[in-house]
TrEMBL record:
It comes from Sitta europaea. Belongs to the NipSnap family. This is NPS3A protein. GO terms for biological process: mitophagy. Residues 12-110, 121-220 form the NIPSNAP domain.
C-alpha cells in the first residue's frame, strides 16, 4: 500500500474519458438518456465534464466496498445487453482515450457534499515526490486545512492513488461559481496562514494541474 487510508476496504475508481471534439454534445446526450442503466449496478459518486483546464473530457467516480464487488459489477455490466447495446456500442466510437485509477480517501477526510446545488467543482491533481504520506502527508494536510479555514471553498474529498500513477493526490473542491472561486483564491494568497502552509508543502510537490468541472444531471454531486 502507498500509505495510510480509511480503516475499511472502500475505494473509489476514477475514470477519465477524452471525447472526440465534434462528438462531445452527442456523448453527453447519450449519458443523459442511458446512464441509469449503469448506475443500476453500482454507486456513482459524481459525473462531470471539463469546462476549463482541459477540453472535451469527462470524469466520473465510482464507489466500491471492495475489489470483489467491483469484479462482480464489471462481470454484470459485460452481460447487461441493454447497457452494452444501447450505450457502450454507440459511446465507444465517440471516445479518443480512456483512463482509470483506483484511489482511497485519505484517513483525515470524509467524502463531503456541497451546501446546495448549482455550483462548480474544481479537480486539482498533485503529483507528489516518491515516499508517500509518511514523507509529505502532514505538510499536505496542513495546506488543505489552511485553504478550508479561509472559508471561500468547500472540500468534497481528497483521494490518494493506489493504482495508476502513484504518489498522486486528487482534491475535489466545490465553489458557488468560478468568480467566487477567483475572489477567494486572491484573498487566500494574501493570507499568511495559507502562504506558510503552501510554502511548506510545495517542497514535496513535483507538479500540479486543475480542471473546472460542471456536473451532469445524472451526477449525485451537483
Amino acid at each position: 500500500a502507498t500509505g495510510p487510508r480509511q480503516n475499511n476496504g472502500i475505494f473509489y475508481e476514477i475514470r477519465t474519458y477524452d471525447i472526440k471534439p465534434a462528438k462531445m454534445k452527442e456523448f453527453l446526450e447519450m449519458v443523459s438518456k442511458y446512464f441509469h442503466l449503469r448506475t443500476a449496478h453500482s454507486e456513482l459518486v459524481g459525473f462531470w465534464y471539463s469546462e476549463l483546464g482541459a477540453m472535451n473530457k469527462v470524469l466520473h467516480i465510482w464507489k466500491y466496498d471492495n475489489f470483489a464487488q467491483r469484479t462482480a459489477v464489471r462481470h454484470a455490466l459485460a452481460n447487461d445487453k441493454d447497457w452494452q447495446g444501447k450505450f457502450i456500442s454507440a459511446a465507444v466510437p465517440l471516445m479518443e482515450k480512456q483512463h482509470n485509477e483506483v484511489a482511497y480517501l485519505v484517513p483525515w477526510c470524509q467524502l463531503g457534499k456541497p451546501p446546495k446545488e448549482g455550483g462548480v467543482y474544481e479537480w486539482v491533481t498533485f503529483q507528489m515526490k516518491p515516499g508517500g504520506p509518511a514523507l509529505w502527508g502532514e505538510a499536505f494536510r496542513a495546506a488543505i486545512n489552511a485553504h478550508i479555514n479561509t472559508g471561500y471553498t468547500r472540500l468534497i474529498g481528497v483521494f490518494h492513488t493506489e493504482y495508476g500513477l502513484l504518489n498522486t493526490v486528487h482534491v475535489l473542491w466545490w465553489n458557488e461559481s468560478p468568480d467566487h472561486r477567483a475572489a477567494g483564491r486572491h484573498s487566500a494568497h494574501e493570507d499568511a496562514r495559507v502562504v506558510a502552509a503552501v510554502r511548506d508543502s510545495v517542497r514535496f510537490l513535483e507538479c500540479q494541474q486543475n480542471m473546472l468541472l460542471i456536473p451532469l444531471p445524472c451526477s449525485p454531486l451537483k
